[in-house]
Design brief:
mainly alpha, 13 helices
């Protein structure tokens, strides 16, 4: 974990140009996803850049570019979010994110990579087979115990893996928010809340270094363009095909990461 933290302040030191170009393209794609749907960008970004940068570097750098993308979109969230719904999950998502961020800071790279692969596979399985939706037939998802429980679980997994929290909340949010616009706005503000919580935790842990801040700044043009393009695409998007493709990408990447790390253990 400390290899990249102890490196000099030169951004992307020791990396070949094509790796840096690939990282920039991946972050631009992630920002497009966030602009179009309000969430779902960090998991593919973290997963793909983990192969190039290592897990801790990939996750912290994803947070740096998320800050840029999310700041652009907070005004949209403030205008369109469903505030009663936001208040329902606020405590759970903050507490879970803080716990997950602490776990992230203490895991060794190999353990984090393996954990990341399994968590992403778990998220895809839950989403593909609609396991949370099936649970709603048995329990009241709007009740305080369930909303707090799911928001804490989602926040914890998101804090560890750098994303994925809202895959566990999306069923509740879909039922609770009256319109797609309100759903997107609520997602935007919840994403901003988890971002700030993780940022504070990582600053306290000493993992926000000048190097990674500089790298995030260099990626700003790609993030801004991707977010702008995604926001324009929102009105004419067809989420079904997108999510199917994203699920396949995530599962394939998660399996590849698990096998890659397992071979080194």
């Amino acid at each position: 974990m400390n290899e990249w933290l102890s490196a000099g302040v030169a951004p992307f030191a020791g990396l070949e140009w094509w790796i840096v170009a690939a990282v920039a393209a991946i972050h631009m794609f992630g920002s497009f996803v966030r602009g179009a749907f309000g969430f779902g960008s960090n998991l593919p970004v973290v997963l793909l850049t983990t192969f190039l940068l290592g897990p801790h570097h990939a996750i912290v750098l994803a947070l740096m570019t998320t800050i840029v993308a999310q700041t652009q979109m907070v005004p949209q969230g403030l205008r369109t979010a469903d505030w009663p719904v936001l208040r329902t999950v606020f405590v759970g998502i903050v507490a879970g994110t803080a716990l997950g961020t602490w776990i992230f800071t203490v895991l060794q790279p190999e353990t984090l990579s393996l954990t990341l692969g399994f968590l992403i596979a778990l998220v895809v399985i839950f989403d593909t087979f609609k396991l949370v939706e099936k649970l709603t037939r048995r329990v009241d998802m709007r009740g305080w115990p369930m909303t707090t429980g799911f928001s804490m679980v989602g926040g914890t997994l998101g804090g560890i893996s750098g994303g994925g929290a809202f895959y566990f909340l999306v069923v509740f949010l879909k039922h609770a928010c009256a319109t797609p616009t309100a759903l997107r706005g609520t997602n935007l503000l919840l994403s901003a809340i988890t971002m700030v919580t993780r940022l504070v935790g990582l600053i306290v842990a000493g993992m926000i270094t000048p190097t990674v801040v500089t790298e995030g700044a260099l990626l700003i043009p790609f993030v801004v363009f991707g977010t702008w393009a995604g926001s324009r695409a929102f009105r004419r998007s067809t989420p079904a095909m997108f999510y199917t493709t994203l699920q396949i990408l995530l599962m394939a990447g998660a399996i590849a990461l698990i096998f890659k790390v397992s071979g080194k253990l």
